[in-house]
Amino acid sequence: MEAHLTAMAVLPMGAALWHGLAALAGWTLANSWWLALLTAAVLIGWEHLQRRLSSAALSRRTYLQLEPTPAFEPDAEQIWRQGMQLVRAAGSGPWWTPRRARSVRVRLRADGKRPLVYRIEAPSTAQPLLKQTPYGPRVEVKRAAPVADKQRAHVVRAVLTLHGEPGSRLREVPLDPDPLQPLIDAVADLNAELGDVAEVCVDLSPAPRWHLAVRRMQAMQRARDQARREAQREARWLTRESADSLPTAMGKLLDPAEWRGSPRGQMVMSPQPRRVKRETVLGKLAHTPGLVRVQILVRCASDAAGRAEARLARIGAAMDVYAGPSRLSTLGWSAGPLRFGPDRRPWRSRFDEQWATAVMRPARGGWAHIDELAGLLKPLTITARLPLLETEMPTYALGENLLPQGWHRGADGRERLLASREDDTLFEVQSGKAGWGKTMRAQVHAVASAHNQRGLAFVDPHGDSFADVARYLAHEDIIDRVALFDLTVREDGDMLSCWNLLDMTAGQPRHEVTTATVEAFAGVLGWGDVTAPRALTILTKAVEVLVAVNAQAVRAQVPDQQATIFQVRALLTDPTFRHLAIAGLDAEARKWWTATFPDIPRDALLTVLNPLERLAASPVTRAFLGCPVSGYDIRSAMDEGQVLWVCPPGTGPTDRLLISLIVHDFLRAGLSRRDLPEAKRRPFRFYLDELISLDGSSTVLAEITEQLRKFGCRLYGMTQLMHRLNPATRSALLQNASCLSTTAGSLEAIGQITDQWPGTITPRDVAELDRFRHYASFTIAGKRVGPLPIRGPELAEVFGDLARPGQVGALRKAAHANAAALPLAERRAMALAQEEAVRSFLTTRTAPTETDDAGEQYA
Known about the structure:
Blueprint: H1 2-30, H2 32-58, E1 61-68, H3 76-90, E2 104-110, E3 117-123, H4 127-130, E4 139-143, E5 154-163, H5 181-186, E6 197-206, H6 209-244, H7 246-254, H8 256-259, H9 278-282, E7 291-302, H10 307-318, E8 327-330, E9 333-335, E10 338-340, H11 347-357, E11 367-369, E12 402-409, E13 415-421, E14 427-431, H12 438-451, E15 455-459, H13 465-473, H14 476-479, E16 482-486, E17 495-496, H15 510-525, H16 533-555, H17 567-573, H18 575-582, H19 587-596, H20 602-617, H21 619-625, H22 634-640, E18 643-647, H23 653-671, E19 684-688, H24 691-695, H25 700-707, E20 713-719, H26 727-736, E21 739-742, H27 747-754, H28 763-767, E22 773-780, E23 783-791, H29 795-799, H30 808-818, E24 822-823, H31 824-832, H32 834-844
Helix pairs in contact: 12-13, 15-16, 15-23, 16-17, 16-20, 17-18, 21-31, 23-25, 25-26
C-alpha cells in the first residue's frame, strides 16, 4: 500500500518537472533572440577583455640577442635546459596575463648584413632569468632593441604547423651538421641593397593542463575507435575466409545434410579489439615536462618582385629537415593558381597581429616537445657553414685602403674579389707548394698597397718579381717612391746600389749601429754567449772601432772615406791599420786592443773573418756592402713611404747571410722608430718570400711580429713548409697572423695551418686543391672570417686597367736613381779602393776636441 501511495505521489512530481522543463524551453525559444544577443555581448566583452589584457602584457617585452663564439658547440643537455628556461620565461608574466599572451619568441632574422641573427623576445619580468644562459661563456647575451623595419614593396607570409598524428614526433635532427644549416643556405644569397629580409619566428607557450587533458582523451578515444574498427574488419574477413575456403567447400560436398538443404550454423569466433597502450598512443603527449604549444611564423620581404616569394619557398623546403612521422608544413590551400592562407585576406590581419605581438593562436596540432625543436633553440654552432656577406668582408676597390685577398664564390654564384683593410692586416702567413700562386698573390697585395700610398719592402730571392709588377707601378704618384736593389746583376753596366752597414751619415747613435750589426751576424751564424763568446767579443770591439772612425769621417764632412764591414779584416790582421784606427779612441776603449787583443790566438780570428771572406768572394756582394755611403736606408724608406724592391742574389749559405743582414736591419729600423710619436709612424709592410732561407736559427722574424706592430710595421711571409721554420718563428707567426692561408701540399705541411682552424677544414680538404686555389682566414674589424675557399688573384686580372707597359723604362730609371745605383763595375772599383780611402783618412785626420753623440772625446 505504501509503495502504491509513493508511486501516486511521484507521478504528479514528474509531470510537474516535465511541464517546468517544457515551459523553460518555451520561454527560451520565445526569448532566443534576446538570449543570443546577451550571450554574444558576454562573449564579445570577454574577448575584448582578453585582447586588452593580452595587449598590455605583450607590450612589456624584453629583447635579447644571443651571439655565439666561433667555437660554440652545445650538447643535448644544454639545449634541453635552454628550452625549459624559455618555457618558464613564457609563463613569467603578471598573474592576470591571458593564456594566449604567455609566450616567448625565438626570432631568426637574416637581412643580407649578417648570416642569421638569433634573438629571444620574452616578458620583461623574464630578463633576469634569460640573461644567464645554460650555454655558458661561449654565448654572449646582449640587450637589444625591438626590430624596426622599413616598409618593402613585396611581402609574403606563411604559418608552419605540425602535421601528423597527435602524438607523433618530428624527425630527430642531429646536431652535427648544424640543424640550422638548411635555413642558413636558404637565406645565404640575400641582397641588402635590394631590401631582402627573411625572418622565422618560433613562438612557444606552456602546455595548458586542461587542454592537454582533452587532447589526451581525444587521442585515446580515436585509438580505441580505430581498434574496434580494425577488429570488426578482421571479423568480416575471417567470416568471408571461412565461408569461401577450400576445406569448407569440400565439407559441404561430403555432408548429406548439405544435400538436403538443411541449414547448418557455422561458429566463427570474432577477434577482440587490440589493447590500446597509453604510452604508444599518446607518444609525446604522454609526458608533460618539455611539452609546449608552438606556432611558427615566416615572413619574407624585398623591394624586387619575385624575390620574397622565392625565398619563402626555399625556407619551406629548409624546414623539411624536420620531416618524420610528423612534419612542418605550410598552413593554407590552393585552388589552381590561387593560394588561400595567411598571405590573403581575411587571414592576413590575424597573421599580422600574431607577428606584431607574439600572441599565441597555434593551429590545430601545434604541440611539440623541446627535444624536437632542439635545432631552433640554440644559436649557430661551430658546425654551421656560414655564407660570407659583403658586410662581413668588403669587395676590393682601388683607392679605398683595401688589400685584395682572393676571389670567392658566394651563395648566389657570383664571384667577387675579397679584400681586407690595410689597418686590420698586420701579419700574414702563406704556405703551400711551389708554383701554386703564393708569390703572385703577394705581388697583387703589394701593388695594391703601393697604390694606397703605403710604404713597403718586397724581398724576392728569385729576382723576377719586379719585372712582373713594374707595369702596374709605373704611375706618376708612385714612380718617385720606388727604389730597386737588384743583386742579381751580372754585367759591368748593370745598375747596383749599395749598403754600408756601418754608415753614420744618418746621425744614428753609435751603439745602435754596433749592436744591430753584431746581432745580425750572430743571429745568422748562431753565435751566442755559450757557443761563440770570443767571436762575439772580437766582432763587437772591431765594429765599435770602425763605427767611431765613420762618426769622425762624417763630422769631418768626408763621408766617402767611411769604413765598411770589410775593413774588419784589415783591423784584425794589419797592425798598421789597427794602430791608426784605435788612435782616435779614448784610453778606456784602446785598453782592450793594447792589453787583451794581443793575447788572442790568431786562429780565433778566423771565426770572425771566415763569413766576411765569403761575402767578399762575390763581386756583387762586395760591391753592394763595400761602398761608403748607403743608397739603401730602410728607416728613411719607412718614414717616407717608399716602395722598395730587394732582389738578393740567391738562397745559398752566403746569400742567406746577406738576406739575414737585411732582415735584421728591418728589426733595427723598426725599433728605432720609438723616437717618433705614434701618430707619425707611417705603416710599412715587409713582404718576405722563401721564409726558410731567411729564418735559419735566428729569431728575428719572431721578434718582428712580436715587437714591431706598435711601430707601424707589418709582415707578409711566404713559405712552402711551415714545419721547417724555427719553432720560435713559426709560433710567433701563427700566434699573431691576421691572415692565414694555404694552398695544396703534403698533409704534414698543411696540418701546421689547418690546426689553427679546428673543426672546420682538414688537411685532406686542402691537399687536393687545384693550382691557384687557397683556403684562407682573415681578421676583419677584430673578428675572424673564414677559413674560406678562394682563388688567388692575378696581376692582370685585378690591375689590368692600371698597366703602363710604355712607362716601365722610366720606372726602372727612377728606381735606380732613388736607390743611388751606379754601374756594377764602378761600384766594384769603389769597394776595392775603400780600404785605402779609410787608411788615408786615418793618416790625415786631426785629433778632434768636440764631443760626439755618445759623449765620448777622442784624444
